[in-house]
Amino acid sequence: MTTLGRAIDVAVIGAGVLGLATTDALVRRGVDVLCFDGRPPGQAQSGGLTRTFRHRHDNDLVVQLAVEAREGFRQWERRSGRRMVGQEGAVYAGMTDSDVKGLVAHGVPHSFVPAERHREFFGPLAPVDGPLLIDPGAGAIRARRVIDALSGWVRDRIVPAEVHAVTIPVAGRGVEFHTADAIHRARHVVIVAGTATPRIAAGVEFDVPLQVALHARPHYEVRDEHRGGPLPCWVDRSGRYGETVYGSPIGSTGRYVLGLIGDDVDIPLTPAGALPPGRSMDEHVRRVGDYVRRALPGLDPRPVGVRVCTMTKLPAGSDAFHAWHTPGVTALTGHNLFKLAPVLGELLAETALTDRLAADLARAGAGALDAPAGVR
């Protein structure tokens, strides 16, 4: 016990999808765990309606984790009685055999189809040059449904309080962390607090080189003549239509969300957390609309909504993540992690129980801090 707080076994800081998944994994193991966040569960970077689940990554070890995460989503679906990953599949343009080595290594079903067959797999797509890569096991994540299920399973373990700092006292006896109303101690603390991770983790001398930026994802209506047809997740790295993009359907709403890929599509925030003077997100929305007119005639190019996301990236790029560990504290951050939440939650729970960084976290995160920028 400590001043006006309680001593617990494990504290999870952050109630986004990773924090909730980690808390759930620990609860199922019978651990005394509490999850702290000053915002409602899933209302920061885990917010929104959709994410893309895909198997293809440049890092073969992340492909392995994606395979395990897909099974984890199936287990969550069985527990909740609701679908969490759709059966839309994913279609890629601009891929070659060198891009699917991880899929081959881990036995992930996939195929290349001629460009002229695009209507069979993505009806609203304009004619393309070169083959299309098909990942039939991919699909659109029902993001809000996932958050609702997880927060329901661990609702009595969520503490609505912001954590100001984490420290390891010289005298030992656990890890100390502070909220506005109490000083707590835990045997182990897991930090998965999104944009706040570098600040909180600095108290245990973790140097987290996280870039925080804004990113626009406009939404478009599917034209009536294309409703009911194939509407998969989409990744276009070909550059044929002037931009590289990703996209996914928003469930069965008849709407589709798109975002740009590239070094110039996120606007880094200043140290004060503001957009740099003179910068605007409107230009990015206009660029996506121009792409829709050229590449996706089955969508109405007038946006019907937009989500402006806070993005967190490590030096290796959009698929990189890294875990830091010292006795008593583990932190993890990166980008595009929603799709890996079932497996990352299990690995973080294992780390918290053993106080040793899970091997798969260390292996998959190698090079995330110093590798050149990657691709989606």
Count of separate DSSP helical elements? 9
| Number of E strands | 19
Largest sheet: 9 strands, mixed
Q: Let me know the average pLDDT.
A: 91
- Uncertain ranges: none
The dominant shape is: globular
Strand content: 25-35%
- From the N-terminal CA to the C-terminal CA, the straight-line distance is 46 Å
Oligomer type: single chain
Structural class: alpha+beta
Topology order in helix (H) and strand (E) letters: EHEEHEHEHEEHEEEEHEEEEEHEEEHH
Describe the protein's architecture and organization.
- The protein has 376 residues and is α+β, with helices and mostly antiparallel strands.
- Helix content is 24%, strand content 26%.
- It has nine helices and 19 strands.
- The protein has helices spanning 17-28, 60-80, 101-105, 118-121, 143-153, 197-201, 282-295, 341-354, 359-364, and strands spanning 7-13, 33-36, 50-53, 90-93, 111-113, 132-135, 139-142, 158-159, 165-167, 175-178, 183-191, 211-221, 233-236, 244-249, 255-261, 267-268, 305-313, 321-326, 329-334.
- Strands 4, 5, 6, 12, 13, 14, 15, 16 and 17 form a nine-stranded mixed beta sheet that branches.
- Helix 1 (17-28) links the parallel strand 1 (7-13) and strand 2.
- The longest helix is centred in the first third of the chain and has 21 residues, at 60-80.
- 47% of the residues are buried.
- The mean pLDDT is 91.
Question: How would you summarize this macromolecular structure in one to three sentences?
Answer:
By secondary structure, the protein is of the alpha+beta class.
